[in-house]
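Duplicate of #3305? Posting structure anyway:
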């Protein structure tokens, strides 16, 4: 039986010889004490439950803060990693551009050397052709000189019989 505050205030005891019925009052007090004790226990249990739930809420809030801090840290780390990757990519690209420029410069220098070599070979060819032409012309002059002996040379080499006939 649950006793309400209204039950307590409206409770009336029977009159007995010299006042109220003692057994009825003691019974009611025992009932009120039992109900009060049950309420005290329930109150303590509720307070304990409230304390436990407050601790759980504090723990959950602590976890939430830790998760938020972890999330912020992870975001910062992600941004740092992204920035480091971007910088590394820029360095790699600039290194590649530098190497490409060196390769192009090397190829250009080699091209210029090849052009110079070709020009030198052309010059040597022209000089060689001139030397061969000079040599051929000098040999032709020698051949012509041996082919048409001059009159004096022809006279010197005539056989003696013909020479006599010519003198006569």
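Output from current build:
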């Amino acid at each position: 039986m649950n006793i309400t505050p209204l039950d307590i205030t409206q409770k009336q005891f029977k009159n007995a010889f010299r006042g109220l019925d003692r057994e009825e009052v003691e019974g009611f007090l025992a009932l009120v004490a039992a109900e009060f004790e049950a309420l005290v226990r329930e109150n303590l249990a509720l307070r304990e439950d409230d304390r436990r739930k407050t601790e759980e809420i504090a723990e959950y809030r602590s976890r939430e803060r830790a998760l938020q801090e972890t999330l912020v840290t992870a975001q910062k780390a992600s941004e740092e990693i992204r920035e480091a990757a971007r910088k590394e990519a820029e360095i790699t690209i600039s290194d590649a551009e530098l190497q490409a420029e060196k390769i192009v410069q090397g190829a250009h220098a080699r091209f210029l050397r090849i052009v110079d070599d070709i020009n030198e070979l052309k010059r040597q060819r022209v000089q060689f052709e001139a030397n061969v032409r000079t040599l051929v012309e000098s040999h032709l002059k020698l051949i012509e000189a041996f082919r048409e002996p001059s009159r004096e040379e022809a006279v010197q080499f005539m056989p003696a019989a013909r020479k006599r006939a010519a003198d006569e």
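Confirmed duplicate; merging threads. Strands lie at 15-16, 19-20. The chain has four helices and two strands.
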